[in-house]
């Protein structure tokens, strides 16, 4: 459950940061502080997401090993 919740937060951070950046880049009067804030939020969301992905990259192997253990006759 915690993994799903974490991925949702990461996705929201990435979307908010991206929307803020796009909004500021298309606006005629660019506020550099909002550009920096949008970039920081986007990068923080990406950082959290890649940490989560690297942490869970071998989860499918654990599921395969558990499935093989159930298939082996004793």
SSE topology:
Elements: H1 2-26, H2 32-55, H3 59-71
Helix pairs in contact: 1-2
Tell me about this structure.
With 74 residues, this protein is an all-alpha fold. The chain has three helices and no strands. Helices cover 84% and strands 0% of the residues. Helix 1 packs antiparallel against helix 2.
Task: Record keyword descriptors for this entry.
0% strand; mainly alpha; 74 residues; single chain
Compute the average pLDDT: 81
Shape: rod-shaped
Helix proportion: over 70%
Low-confidence stretches: none
Largest sheet: none
Q: In sequence order, what are the helices and strands, one letter per element? A: HHH
Structure summarized in a few sentences:
The chain is 84% helix and 0% strand.
